[in-house]
């Protein structure tokens, strides 16, 4: 609706001759659909999302593992496909990759609305392709097929796109929804254990801030996961775990897709971790840095009396049993202070740090002090060492038991 503000322009103080206010709503609608075996030729879930021709943008590892299945799938459905293979390391998440993908879009010559870009890959490739799809002709339709656990439960389900710039993660980015995301857990079969643990950290986050039932499921899955070298699909509750993680994430994102409200419980574990992730040596994956941040925030919640000792122990134990780090030697005073400063800028002037008030419940605080954080870091470190020690004792005990037996 366009309105003209008569009274204001009539007033002597207004320098405007005329002023119009434009106020419009932009409806966002997309599907996130769990589909097993999305590349099975008889599975139509992807084909029905693709009108006419397709440009497939494929993560280089996914090309090696699934490239021939991707081509065979489109051939089976009579859909002409051009394929571009792109690298997927974090350092390739930069503007030049967006331009490469946009050039491939131009070369493919797709119709503006009725033909489709399909991205197969993890968070890096999806973030790049989402931005390219948003910039190309000011927005063309794209479908996401995530192939990593972070992709399935996090990067693939929201509307954020972006690339890194300078020393800053996701500094250039937009909000741009796909037409659909097709979540196929079978891609996880080829994902290295470290990348499974990376995604598990984001699932633990959802459990801690809003889903106590999910936390219990993860606790029951922790041993089978370790024994099966983190093959998530080997756990018979994996579909329920994924569905609760995705549903929980979406229910937080949907009312706040453009992050108008900066108090986001999904930012739990994302206060100090972005700074740690940037400088960690040896490097940390995103979920690993998030796990270290979550452990610190659990300790802060405990020290503020928001969380009981028992609840805090459950959180620490789960992270530990899933093979995630609880501490990092680079988590020290200077870094933590600078991280909190950066967060305050990112969250528009306030800390807005999510802390836990129970398993599955969170609140926000704005008054963390450096001293409080330093004390919590020290006790998290001591507790991490104690957990490692107890595991060492347990495994020594088992070895001795075996030797005796
Ligand atoms: N847009 C968002 O809302 C959002 C949310 C979370 C994370 N992210 C971004 O996502 C990125 C991390 O994503 P990621 O963890 O998926 O990493 P990634 O995209 O780098 O993929 C990790 C590795 O796994 C390989 N790979 C992909 N699929 C595979 C498969 N099925 N089998 C074997 N190997 C496979 C890739 O080639 C890569 O080497 C970060 O840049 C982060 O900022 C974005
Ligand atoms: Zn995250």
Please report the number of helical segments. Answer: 13
Proportion of helical residues: 40-55%
CATH class (first level) name of the largest domain: Mainly Alpha
Main sheet characteristics: 6 strands, parallel
Structural class, from helix and strand content? alpha/beta
Summarize the structure.
The chain has about 400 residues and is of the alpha/beta class.
Commentary on this structure:
With 405 residues, the chain is α/β, with parallel strands linked by helices. It has two domains: 31-191, Rossmann fold; 196-402, Dehydroquinate synthase-like - alpha domain (Dehydroquinate synthase-like, alpha domain, Up-down Bundle). It contains 13 helices and twelve strands. The protein has helices at residues 6-10, 60-76, 95-108, 123-135, 149-155, 193-210, 212-227, 238-253, 273-279, 286-303, 309-321, 333-346, 370-404; strands at 2-4, 20-22, 31-34, 54-59, 81-86, 116-121, 142-146, 163-165, 168-172, 180-183, 353-358, 361-365. The strands form four sheets. Strands 3-10-7-6-4-5 form a six-stranded parallel beta sheet, sandwiched between helices. The longest helix is centred in the C-terminal third of the chain and has 35 residues, at 370-404. The N and C termini lie far apart (81 Å). Nicotinamide-adenine-dinucleotide binds next to α2, α4, α5, β9 and α6. The site of nicotinamide-adenine-dinucleotide (NAD) has 30 residues, from α2, α4, α5, β9 and α6.
């Amino acid at each position: 609706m366009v309105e003209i503000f008569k009274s204001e322009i009539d007033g002597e103080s207004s320098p405007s001759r005329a002023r119009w206010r434009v106020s419009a709503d932009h409806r966002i609608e997309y599907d996130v659909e769990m589909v097993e075996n999305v590349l099975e030729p008889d599975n139509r879930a992807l084909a029905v999302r693709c009108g006419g021709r397709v440009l497939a943008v494929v993560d280089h590892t996914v090309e090696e593992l699934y490239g021939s299945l991707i081509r065979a799938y489109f051939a089976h459905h009579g859909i002409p496909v051009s394929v571009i293979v792109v690298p997927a390391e974090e350092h390739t998440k930069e503007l030049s990759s967006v331009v490469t993908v946009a050039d491939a879009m131009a070369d493919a010559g797709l119709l503006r609305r009725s033909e489709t870009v399909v991205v197969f890959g993890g968070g890096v490739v999806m973030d790049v392709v989402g931005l390219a799809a948003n910039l190309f002709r000011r927005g063309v339709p794209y479908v996401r097929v995530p192939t990593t656990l972070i992709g399935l439960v996090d990067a693939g389900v929201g509307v954020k796109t972006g690339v890194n710039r300078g020393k800053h993660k996701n500094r250039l980015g937009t909000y741009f929804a796909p037409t659909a995301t097709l979540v196929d857990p079978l891609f996880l079969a080829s994902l290295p254990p470290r990348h499974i643990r990376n995604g598990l950290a984001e699932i633990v986050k959802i459990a801690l801030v809003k889903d106590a039932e999910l936390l219990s499921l993860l606790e029951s899955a922790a041993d089978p996961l370790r024994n099966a070298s983190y093959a998530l699909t080997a756990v018979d509750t994996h579909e329920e775990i994924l569905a609760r993680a995705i549903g929980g994430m979406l229910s937080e994102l949907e009312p706040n897709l453009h992050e108008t409200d900066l108090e986001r419980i999904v930012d739990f574990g994302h206060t100090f971790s972005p700074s740690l992730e940037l400088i960690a040596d040896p490097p940390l994956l995103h979920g690993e840095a998030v796990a270290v941040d979550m452990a610190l925030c659990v300790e802060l919640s405990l020290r503020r009396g928001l969380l009981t000792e028992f609840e805090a122990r459950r959180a620490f134990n789960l992270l530990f049993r899933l093979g995630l780090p609880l501490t990092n030697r680079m988590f020290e005073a200077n870094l933590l202070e600078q991280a909190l400063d950066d967060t305050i800028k990112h969250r528009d002037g306030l800390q807005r740090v999510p802390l836990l008030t129970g398993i599955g419940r969170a609140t926000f605080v704005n008054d963390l002090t450096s001293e409080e954080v330093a004390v919590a870091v020290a006790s998290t470190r001591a507790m991490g060492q104690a957990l490692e020690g107890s595991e060492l004792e347990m495994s020594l005990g088992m070895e001795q038991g075996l030797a005796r037996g």
